[in-house]
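TICKET: design request
STATUS: open
ATTACHED STRUCTURE:
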């Protein structure tokens, strides 16, 4: 579930960028090397390659079921054609720049983390994540001389323009304090006897690359960097390069990665979006406690529809915070918000309009200048500022839960207006006008839901029969100014067939 949180977060952001008109390259992949995989394969009587070839397609299938709109290629670090050449070229660049040095190193190694730890990383002599004392290991390693880059990194992370910005702010402070405490050089390889399952060091085949130069480089290898099939412009000339990453490996993205790029003469990224961990009912998910939630179970609960889970993660967990998964809470949200607030409102409005013949009336005259929401007569709702602006502002600050909160708030308002104004008690043009206002309200809600719950947004728009409905799920779809305007769909004349949006849970 932890990685589902990450992929959904990244997907919501990528979708929003596309919807506001940006060209987006959204890249994901799997880190498939390391001692843990090697050991796991041994236990199962497989080669490491067989193990990852068996498991990775399951991840890819899961991302598809979650409607994660990543761009091909899906980067696998075991891909010798696509990934390795960039990695080996980058290694040589670091070496040519004099930033790699071979040393005998004695250090504390945590098997669980698959990395050397410093005394500072430990709590009571143990790894805080694995609650085990690391073993003392002495071996020859190639080192990346990161210490040299401390001053430069501090500047990069604090620079207003052209810097590397960490979201949320609290994590930025954490990273800077790491620099203040003094950075150490980083082990970049291990002898083959300790680590076989990885990329051999160019020119020193007795050494295997350690995770940093291998896995971090996926961002470049996906673009064919340093090969004859480069698509460099995505990295070199975009408005923004954003990494979305969990808090456990965030500091390697914040420190090692930009230092590597700088050494190789490659542009550094612009933003690092760090997400927290997911607990279950307030407890760390663990096989021992037996509270591990599998994403497949959650999908199955909602008939394979990914939207309730996407909605839950976006609604409940502000970006950067740790979150909690609770079956009770997801069912509650499904019933209270998706079914009762959204599904019912849509169904009531469509059923009433159908009874009147299905026509949508031009309600532009009932809008207030600059206001998005309705004011057909004085006793009607006066509007609460420009919702689309608030929505975009929340997104631009990566406050995704607040952007979604605006859509939810509009559902609450819609239901309230329905009960207050009882359109079914009216007749003739007055009735149709009021119902058209509700339909227009729902059209806006659906558009706002599009990055979060794309399938639901599409189904609402299709039932409403808005002219752009069929194009909404295409990657090229952009939310235009007209779409954000009150009554902006002049060709929208009739509604479609009402259908139940969310079925009751069994
Ligand atoms: Zn550990």
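STATUS: resolved
RESOLUTION: sequence designed for all positions
ATTACHED SEQUENCE:
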């Amino acid at each position: 579930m932890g990685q589902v949180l990450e992929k959904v977060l990244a997907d919501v952001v990528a979708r929003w960028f596309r919807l506001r008109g940006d060209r987006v390259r959204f890249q994901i992949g799997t880190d498939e090397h390391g001692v843990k995989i090697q050991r796991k394969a041994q236990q199962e009587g497989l080669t490491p390659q067989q193990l990852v070839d068996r498991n990775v397609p399951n991840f890819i299938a899961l991302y598809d079921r979650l409607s994660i709109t990543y761009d091909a290629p899906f980067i696998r670090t075991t891909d010798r054609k696509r990934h390795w050449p960039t990695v080996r070229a980058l290694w040589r660049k670091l070496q040519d720049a004099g930033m790699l040095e071979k040393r005998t190193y004695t250090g504390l190694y945590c098997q669980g983390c698959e990395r050397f730890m410093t005394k500072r990383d430990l709590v009571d002599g143990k790894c805080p994540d694995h609650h085990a004392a690391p073993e003392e290991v002495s071996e020859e390693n190639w080192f990346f001389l990161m210490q040299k880059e401390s001053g430069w990194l501090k500047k990069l992370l604090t620079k207003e323009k052209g810097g590397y910005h960490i979201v949320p702010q609290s994590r930025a402070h954490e990273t800077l304090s790491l620099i203040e405490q003094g950075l150490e050089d980083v082990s970049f390889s291990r002898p083959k006897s300790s680590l076989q399952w990885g990329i051999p060091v160019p020119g020193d085949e007795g050494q295997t690359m350690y995770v940093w130069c291998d896995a971090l480089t996926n961002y470049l290898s996906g673009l064919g960097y340093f090969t004859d099939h480069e698509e460099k412009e995505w990295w070199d000339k975009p408005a923004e390069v954003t990494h979305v990453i969990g808090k456990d490996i965030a500091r390697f993205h914040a420190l090692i990665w930009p230092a590597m790029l700088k050494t190789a003469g490659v542009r550094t990224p612009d933003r690092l979006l760090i997400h927290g961990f997911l607990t279950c009912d307030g407890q760390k998910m663990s096989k021992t406690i037996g509270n591990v939630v599998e994403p497949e179970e959650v999908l199955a609960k909602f008939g394979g529809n990914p939207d309730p889970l996407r909605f839950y993660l976006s609604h409940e967990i502000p970006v950067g915070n740790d979150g909690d998964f609770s079956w009770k809470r997801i069912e509650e949200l499904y019933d209270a918000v998706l079914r009762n607030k959204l599904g019912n409102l849509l169904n009531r409005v469509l059923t009433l309009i159908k009874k009147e013949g299905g026509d949508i009336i031009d309600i532009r005259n009932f809008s207030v200048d600059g206001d998005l929401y309705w004011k057909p007569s004085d006793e009607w709702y006066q509007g609460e500022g420009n919702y689309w602006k608030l929505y975009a502002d929340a997104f631009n600050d990566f406050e995704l839960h607040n952007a979604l909160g605006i859509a939810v708030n509009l559902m609450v308002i819609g239901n309230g207006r329905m009960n207050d104004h009882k359109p079914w008690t009216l007749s003739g043009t007055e009735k149709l006008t009021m119902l058209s206002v509700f339909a227009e309200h729902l059209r806006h809600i659906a558009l706002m839901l599009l990055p979060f719950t794309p399938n639901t947004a599409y189904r609402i728009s299709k039932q409403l029969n808005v002219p752009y409905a069929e194009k909404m799920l295409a990657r090229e779809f952009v939310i235009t100014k007209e779409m954000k305007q009150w009554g902006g769909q002049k060709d929208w004349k009739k509604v479609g067939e009402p259908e139940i949006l969310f079925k009751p849970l069994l």
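CLOSING REMARK: The CA atoms of residues 47 and 265 lie 37 Å apart. The chain has two domains: 29-67+73-276, 333-484.
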